[in-house]
Amino acid sequence: MTAKTATKITLWEFFQQLGKTFMLPVALLSFCGIMLGIGSSLSSHDVLTLLPWLDVPLLQAVFIWMGKVGSFAFSFLPVMFCIAIPLGLARENKGVAAFAGFVGYAVMNLAVNFWLTAKGILPTTDAAVLKANNIQNIIGIQSIDTGILGAVIAGIIVWMLHERFHNIRLPDALAFFGGTRFVPIITTVVLGLVGLVIPLIWPVFAMGINALGHVINSAGDFGPMIFGTGEAPAAAFRPAPYSGGADPLLPRRGEPWTFAAIASAAR
């Protein structure tokens, strides 16, 4: 077997394992989607008009609770992916890998926040500025919303750091920080640097998405074909139209999901 063939097999196995790690957050997402759908629909004004016998305080409290709890997976989906990827890919010390995944994602967004603050973009409450820079509140941090794609990249980086450093031995004076304890430490440093690069790269990536949207809009009869071909792969990263504009029915991060929003996202 040649080295080239071995590399291909290794990459293929890696992507297979990476795909398996998605199943953990996707399974929770499916369950939360059911809870959110039931809770939001049965507590909506339209349903209560058709089925007035559901307008009971206790039942409505249960339905609203289901909607609130079910919205968890949709509000924190990137965090779930960033934790699940190193957890699923790590061969040993999976708990440390998962912990480092959360640390890395939080530090990355803090570094982005630092860059935005240093550039004078933050702090601000101007909706136009926030929208122009794609700034959202992510786990309590104002940062550029990189969505699931950013979480996947961060999770892979954390996994690579974990596999490289979880058995590291440091000099006796620093032995306390060696082994598995070193993984979140090196993750903090590396993802902190990655967060400084994201504001430089992500706008270019977003411009590419917007340009693709304009191409599809101007493609005439070929537009639906291009859109349909690319919709399935793109859905794994972000449920937004190719034009780059947010669906008015879809809530922004942190806002509650409504029955209309769920129906719009499912289309």
TrEMBL record:
Coiled coil: none annotated. Residues 9-267 form the PTS EIIC type-1 domain. It is a multi-pass membrane protein. Keywords: Cell membrane, Membrane, Phosphotransferase system, Sugar transport, Transmembrane, Transmembrane helix, Transport. It comes from the Bacteria. Its main location: membrane. The keyword Cytoplasm does not apply. InterPro entries: PTS_EIIC (IPR003352), PTS_EIIC_1 (IPR013013), PTS_Glucose_EIICBA (IPR050429). The chain crosses the membrane at residues 21-42, 62-89, 96-118, 138-161, 182-202. GO terms for biological process: D-glucose transmembrane transport; phosphoenolpyruvate-dependent sugar phosphotransferase system. PANTHER family: CYTOCHROME C-TYPE SYNTHESIS PROTEIN AND PTS TRANSMEMBRANE COMPONENT, PTS SYSTEM GLUCOSE-SPECIFIC EIICB COMPONENT-RELATED. This is PTS system protein. It comes from Klebsiella michiganensis. The gene is ptsG_8.
